[in-house]
Design brief:
With 341 residues, this protein is an alpha/beta fold. It has helices at residues 7-36, 52-65, 78-86, 110-126, 148-169, 179-204, 212-237, 239-256, 268-273, 278-291, 298-321, and strands spanning 44-49, 70-75, 92-95, 101-104, 132-135, 327-329, 336-338. The protein has 2 domains: 44-138; 142-338, no CATH class. The strands form 2 sheets. It has a 5-stranded mixed β-sheet, sandwiched between helices. Strand 6 (327-329) and strand 7 (336-338) form a beta hairpin.
Length: 341
């Protein structure tokens, strides 16, 4: 005969499902909406080849056209400015003269290029001049808005979170599972994820093409980073650790990277923290690999490696210090069971 369990016991055990759903819904709407609902240029970086006076004048004109939207940096010559553009240190380069020119890099984002074309074109027209625009790193026709890199980052992030969560629920943190085996699973998953993502974007979805192994490497590094960090949090905190990683990586880091509008159009807070987040780092690295022949990839790759190294250290410390495995409540039974503890 089945034992009757009071409703309050069921409520106590199942109420976290309601709370979890509400928290995720609130966080998704809050983060994505606050970051992307009103995209405006936010400190776009424009290099100018000219005198300090010309740079100051250009900054004043841009402040009137796009208040707070563009920051001007002066370069001594066009070659140096072009190098900055292709290292992703500048969103555009302006060369003032009787026939002003604007150099852009479409691979850095279609919205940034549109904003700069509009601002500089209007300024030139006001002076009775025609602005010549050159796209030095154009987007391919099959990815005219430059969205493939973001969707690859988003897909890799979500897949890596699913992998780490499944590892937890299936007992992958059991003390009977050797540490080297657990780390080996993360490495194997990351390597396969990078390869599958590169195949997907190059041959199936026709998104990022022309840099197969570079895309695979960045995808693998991002997958390893997200999976290892989530594994570390799960090893220390159990199920709440996975929830924190979902909030941090899927619901905060992705919108902070700019989503479909680009990182140059998110509000100041998101733009300030984005450079240290895995999603933004992977996005810049992918752009550099695919559109800039490797330019501007060193710093974002170092950011990803720093996250990965910190996660591995945390996993090893948990193995040494915490001699108990994470515990997960078993729904429908009054006892709690350890996953392989």
């Amino acid at each position: 005969m089945a034992t009757h369990i009071p409703s309050r016991v069921h409520l106590k055990r199942l109420a976290p499902a309601i709370v979890s759903g509400l928290v995720v819904s609130f966080a998704f709407v809050a983060f994505f909406t606050s970051a992307l609902h009103d995209p405006r240029p936010n400190a776009l970086t424009v290099g100018i080849v000219g005198s300090p006076a010309a740079a100051a004048q250009t900054q004043r004109e841009l402040d009137r056209a796009l208040p707070g939207g563009v920051a001007v940096t002066r370069y001594a010559d066009e070659a140096t400015a072009r190098a900055a553009l292709h290292a992703q240190d500048a969103d555009g380069v302006f060369l003032p003269s009787a026939r002003p020119r604007l150099l852009l890099a479409g691979g850095a984002g279609a919205n940034a290029g549109t904003a700069l074309r509009t601002a500089f074109g209007a300024a030139a027209a006001a002076q009775g001049r025609r602005l010549a625009v050159q796209d030095t790193a154009p987007l391919p026709e099959h990815d005219s808005r430059g969205l493939s890199a973001f969707f690859m980052v988003a897909g890799t992030t979500i897949g890596s979170l699913v992998f780490a969560a499944a590892l937890f629920f299936m007992g992958g943190h059991s003390l009977r599972v050797p540490l080297r085996f657990r780390l080996g699973l993360v490495v194997a998953f990351a390597a396969l994820a990078g390869l599958i993502i590169a195949i997907d974007t190059a041959f199936v979805a026709d998104g990022l093409s022309g840099a197969f192994w570079g895309v695979a490497a960045i995808g693998a590094l991002l997958a390893a980073t997200i999976a290892a960090v989530t594994t570390a949090f799960a090893r220390w905190l159990g199920l709440p650790g996975i929830g924190l990683c979902v909030l941090a990586f899927m619901l905060f880091s992705l919108p902070a990277s700019g989503g479909a509008v680009g990182p140059e159009f998110v509000p100041g807070f998101y733009r300030d923290v984005a450079p240290i987040l895995p999603s933004h780092a992977a996005l810049l690295a992918l752009r550099g690999i695919v559109y800039f022949h490797g330019g501007g990839t060193t710093e974002p790759v170092l950011v990803l490696l720093a996250w990965l190294a910190g996660a591995i250290v945390a996993i090893v410390l948990a193995h040494v210090i915490r001699r108990d495995a994470p515990r997960l409540p078993v729904i429908g039974h009054p006892a709690e069971a350890a996953f392989g503890g």
